[in-house]
Amino acid sequence: RRGGLGAWARRLTGGRAAGERPDDDAAFAEYDPAADHAAALAELPGGAEAAVSDGPVGYERWPDAATILLTALGPGPRLWERGPDHPDALTVRLGTASRHGGRAAVPVTVELRRAGSLGLAGPRTRLAGLARSAIAQLAALHSPGTLEIVLISTDRARAVEERVADWSWLGWLPQVRPAHGQDCRLLLAHDKEQAAARAAELVRRLDDGPLGPGWASAERAEVASAAARHQGPYTLVIVDGDPGSSALRETTARLAAGGPAAGIHLLCLAETPAASPAFPLAATYEAAREASPAFGECGAVAVLSGDVATALRVVQPGSGPNGTVATVDAVSGAWAERFARALAPLRETDATATVGGRTVHRAAVPLPDSARLLDELGLARATPASLMARWAAALDTDRPGAAAVLGAGPHGPLCADLAADGSHLLVEGAAATGKTELLRSLAASLAAADRPDLLSLVLVDGGGSERGEGLKVCTDLPHVTTYLAASDPVRMREFAQALSSELKRRAEILAGTPFAEWRTKHLPAPRIVAPRRTTEGTSGSAAGEPDPSTTGTLRLRARSGAPAEDGVPAAAPMPRLFVLVDDFDALVAPALGSTGRPAAGSVVRALEAVARDGAALGVHLIAATGHPDRTAETATSERAGLRVRLGAAGDPSEPVPAGRGLLHRAADGSSTPFQAGRVTGRIPRTSTLRPTVVPLEWRRMGDPPARRPLRELGNGPTDLALLASALQRAAQSSGAPSAPPLV
């Protein structure tokens, strides 16, 4: 705590740590680059490679501006060569320093992963040239999947036109494109609204980081430890001058100190006079802290000095108290424009970013007020071909086959797998929170996930048909084998008996074998079979089939639908069964005088048996309750591995959109907010989906993209009807019949 950059900063600001000699301050009372150059280099440890690198190897590791430009202009192995596991990742060259004895100059570098953040101070022209050089190095050597670049340039002391002109070249870099769900065209901020949006995106990432929401109060040792464990991707945040409001000033300062814990590193630019005998280094540092509040939190700083600001003093961990004196590296605006335009059309070969062989998770984004289920499923245009492709992928034996998309989550579509995450799902929420719509979406999502002969749905409206359409609108899905309403007690009793019998039948067939293992052995394993040509005397199903030589089409025929080989009869069909129950509380505590009251008890007992024993038999229960207190002591509530709570998470009086909720996983205790997908809305008008082309200025690139308001066809089909029609045609084409009904 007494040495290094902290002591240097204390001496600059007039402070002194306990035990420091007052004479130490005299070393910083006046700065003369020519006189101090040799002394500063002499203080470097022999192995201080982080500050100065020797000989040709140093130039190869940290190339100059000419090499960087050639790397961008032509094909070569150096482009985007540094991943998170590269030893020189996020290391930037700032200039060159001379050695004793007239030896050749060697690069002076700063390792951002070690320093945390970097502050640059000096006159505007030289400062901009140095910043362009440093940013270009990082953009040329790190791919967009490894490094993203964010600009915050909202200093009110400079005209917006001047700021935009200085940074317009940055907009061409692929690292500035939003790749983690940010709501903007480019990761730029030229006004206070854009700056607030960029800062909020970074704060959300830190809240989701290893230090959690309390990252701002973490000790430096905790931040350093988390930064050392972070393996990418990284974010470089350029803060040019004063960010503006007091809130942004405080946020950027906290980001400079705590951001490295989540791979966020700041490059702070502060416009000051060059350090000189007339303007000492201490005064330069104080001016930099005034110009950029985050400058004081930077672990490494570089101050331009000299009559024409071509000298640079770099102070960082391991460089000694006086730092390293170097000749600055700088490039012009025209150079930067040419460099950035050369990188603009380039893309990574693998768009699904993996960094260092690891999957990169998307950054958290704000939840929308509404979400369309088909968009979250990736079925904006639901066709039989796209559904058959999904079903073919579901035949992969590594997948449990019980995954459903609930809606839009903070990191993309939120998926819940009842086979892997929990046996059953309980949805809780008051009236008008979207319980029924969520059950409809779950039914549609499950139907889109697997074939109707491998997955079947049973729908129960516990509140009766008098409460509206309920789940009846889902009966067109080919996977739905049975629909019941509590207002029909006769059928409800039959359903209770049939469900109990189904559980016994499955238990006898499985005979202790886990359902997942049994399912793996009895998957249809579709094969491609060319239809036979029609010839005279041919009878049976082959007659009238098209000739593949003329149509070029092959038919998929499931093995389960073919005659049994070697005379062995085919196994009885046993698809994974989902029982969806709306208004479960109305069955547990039926109202006096309700028509379904006589049969409610038997139905609840059958559902309780599913909650206790169904998971091992491939039967899952999804129930919705408007009164959790009435169902709290049921086996359904106790055995629910997944639980959804709809409505306001905090203050009940706070208005929230219908369908907003939290998904709780009992296995790990995690909670994920989401916006439930809507499936009964009308399909959008065609004009809504057409692209829009408008001229844009660089200063507006940080705004959210313009979107046409979603307009539904007033008399058109719903998304659910569109999906059901496509599912029916896909089932017919794949030869996948529905399972027999329970009742």
TrEMBL record:
Limits of the FtsK domain: 411-657
Record carries keyword Cytoplasm: no
One Pfam family from the record: FtsK_SpoIIIE
Residue sites binding ATP per the record: G429, A430, A431, A432, T433, G434, K435, T436
Region (Disordered) residue spans: 530-554
GO BP term, pick one: cell division
InterPro entries: FtsK/SpoIIIE/SftA, FtsK_dom, P-loop_NTPase
Keywords carried by this UniProt record: ATP-binding, Cell cycle, Cell division, Nucleotide-binding
GO molecular function: ATP binding; DNA binding
Name of the protein this chain belongs to: Cell division protein FtsK
Organism in which the protein naturally occurs: Streptomyces inhibens
